[in-house]
Amino acid sequence: MKLRIVNVVGARPNFMKIAPLMAEYRKHPDRIEPVLVHTGQHYDDNMSQLFFDQLQLPKPEICFGVGSGTHAEQTGRIMVEMEKFLATQPADLVVVVGDVNSTMAGAIVAAKSRIPVAHVEAGLRSFDRTMPEEINRIVTDALSDFCFTTSDDAGENLRREGVASEKIFFVGNVMIDSLLRLKESALKLNIRPAGRYGFVTLHRPSNVDKKETLAGILSALDEINRELPLIFPAHPRTATRMKDFGLRTEAKVGEPVGYLDSLCLMAGATLVLTDSGGVQEETTVLGVPCLTIRENTERPVTVTQGTNTLVGTSRAKIVEEARGILTGHGKSGHVPKHWDGHAAERIVRCLLEHPPTK
Question: Which residues are catalytic?
Answer without folding.
Answer: 203
